[in-house]
Structures are given as structure tokens and as C-alpha cells.
Amino acid sequence: MDFASAQVIGAGLAAIGVGAAAIGVGNVFGSFLESALRNPAAADGQQGRLFIGFAAAELLGLIAFAVAMIILYAR
Amino acid sequence: MAAEGGIDPMHQFRVEPLVPLHIGPYDISLTNSSAWMLAGLALIFGFMVLGMKRQLVPGRWQMAVEGLTGFIDGLARVNIGPEGKAFVPYLFSLFTFILVANLLGLMPFGIIPGVHSFTTTSHFSITGVLALLSFSMVLIVGFWRHGLRFFSLFVPHGTPLPMIPLIAPIEFISFMVRPFSLGLRLFVAMIAGHILMEVFGSFIVSGLGGGPMGWAVGGLSFLFIMFVVALELLMCVIQAYVFSLLTALYLHDAVHLH
Question: Alpha carbon B224 to chain centroid distance?
């Protein structure tokens, strides 16, 4: 296999991580909604924590994207 | 990446000098990046000055400015505590600069001939410096208030004695990674959104010359790109909020030591 095709396949494999992070972000907001509907009075106070969880989950997906870009444009 | 159709999605991130200026070996030209930063600064300045007339009965504009400052004030009070008052100016500058820079990059200024909008926050040299500013502020505040006791940040309360050699390095690594994760998040989120929009925009352009099948692909891409732009507008606000929120949380650590 030549370098160019291995590069494209590697970048595609690295992009799987972005999909996994999508599951994580969905999990964060899904769990928040589920419990916010059970106790709406307490929901507003937890919005900071919601965004911290979102930021942590999203960062891992963005790192996967950065790795894919590094592989794709490596010389 | 093979350049089919000749549209290069990375070209929009190129920094080009507008007014070349060299002092000795240093290149301090006014680039499109710094020009858009100045445009953002002018926007923020105009927005604030027009709303700071201190009328007894606030108009719409003053209400908008008071809403923004009140939002940052609440962010600092909730996340840092009563000491957060001192950090409100910094958090406010951070939030407004990132928000305006993100939104300016998304505005369709390209329809004016000769103008290309540029997202300043899509470069790690900008977001990395912002993250380093936050990080050094945490270090300065921590050592100023607590001296060498600041290092007890690496040993959480109630850690059993045998666990300390294990916990302390992990806490130290997670502390040192903060500036990188802070800068990387904003930079990659902006760059990913702009590449996505550029790629689907190139599908529309290439689809125009591709017969009925190409038109169908172009139409679908057009619908999708509208959804992506809406998502990106949301992303701009969320990224600015997350950056200032995380800075506030790190400052809480520095002020209160867990």
C-alpha cells in the first residue's frame, strides 16, 4: 500500500473517534434532560455542570478530529 | 488530500499581510488576522460606548449592555464566589472578544468584492495565548494568595496517605494539561466548522455543472449547509461561554484551593 492511500485510510479511522464523542455529547445532554424533567426546579442550578460535561466530552472528539487532520496533511 | 474541483478548504485560514511592516528581523505586518481583531475591538467598543450613557430609565441598547455585563457578573459570582468580583473585567473581555471574533468569522462578508472574512479564533497562536493568559492568571492568583500552600491543590481533601504518590502526579498532569485543552477546544471547534461549511459549499458549486444528478446533490448540500450554519452560530456562543466558564472554574481552584 502506498503512502497516500494509507494516509487517507488512517484519517478515516481517526474520524471514528468523532462519532464516539458524538455519543458522549448526546449522553451528557440526554441525561441532563431526563433528570431536569424529573426535578425542573433544580435544573437551572446545574447548567454550569452541564456545560463542563459537554466541554469535556466534546474536547475528546475535537482531539480525534485534530489527529485526523495531522494524519491527512502529514508529509 | 487530492484537490478535486480546485477548491482548497484550508485556504480560508491563510494569514496574509495587508500592510507589510518589518522591523529588523521581525515581521510585524498588519495581517488580515490582526485587521479582523481590530474590527472586533471596534465593534465591542462601539457596543459598550453606545450603551454606557447611564440613563435612569435604560433604553434598549443600555438593557443589552447591562444584560451582557450582568451575565458575566453572575458567572463570576456563581463559580468563583464573592471574590469573583475582581475577575469580572478579565472574564468579560475574554467572553466578548471570543464571541465577537467567532461571529465575525461566520458573517457572509465574502459577498462584498475584495473582502474575505477571517476567523481570528481559528488559529492556535491566538487561542493558545488566550489560554496561557488564563493559566498564568491562575498561577499568579494562586501563589499570591496562598504562597507555597498552593501546591496542596495537587492533593485533594481526604486522600489516604498511601494514595498520595499516585494521586499527586495525576492531579499535576491534569493541571498542566488545562491551557492546552482550553486553547485546543476553541481552535479546533472553529476550524472544524469552517472546513465543513467550505466542503459543502464546494459541493454546491461543483454540483451546478453536473447535470440533474449534480443539482440534486447541490440542493441537498444547500439544505444541509443551512442547518450547519445554525449549528455553528450556536457553537460560537457555546465555545465563548465554555472558555470563560472554565477560566472561572480554574480561578475558583486558585482562590479556594478545592
Answer: 25
Model-level pTM? Answer: 0.87
CA distance B100 to B188: 17
ipTM: 0.81
Its domain, for residue A65, covers: 3-72
Would the CB atoms of A59 and B192 count as touching at under 8 Å?
Answer: no
Q: What is the DSSP string of B91-102?
A: HHHHHHHHHHHH
Chain A hits for B192, CB-CB cut-off 8 Å, are 62, 65
* Span B3-38, pLDDT tens digits: 445 677 777 888 888 888 888 888 888 888 888 999
Q: What is the DSSP letter of B64?
A: H
How many angstroms away from the CA of B162 is the closest CA of chain A? Answer: 29
Q: Are A51 and B249 a contacting pair at CB < 8 A?
A: no
- Over residues B190-248, the pLDDT tens digits come to 988 898 888 888 888 888 888 888 889 889 999 999 999 999 999 899 999 999 999 99
Size of interface A-B (CB pairs under 8 A): 34
Q: For position A10, which CATH number holds?
A: 1.20.20.10
CA-CA-CA-CA dihedral for B157, B159, B161, B165, to nearest 10:
-110
pLDDT tens-digit map of B140-195:
999 999 888 888 888 888 888 888 888 889 989 989 999 999 999 999 999 888 98
Look up residue B71 and give its three cell numbers. 451575565
Beta-carbon separation of B188 and A65 below 8 A = yes
What is the number of structural domains in chain A?
A: 1
Quick one: what percent of chain B has pLDDT higher than 70? 97
Contact: A51, B245; criterion CB under 8 Å: yes
Q: Pick from B225, B229, B131, B213: which is nearest to B180 by CA?
A: B131
For chain B, give every domain's residue range: 13-256
| B41-98 confidence digits (pLDDT tens) | 999 999 998 888 777 788 888 888 989 999 999 999 988 888 888 999 999 999 999 9
What's the gap in Å between the CA of A20 and the closest CA on chain B? 16
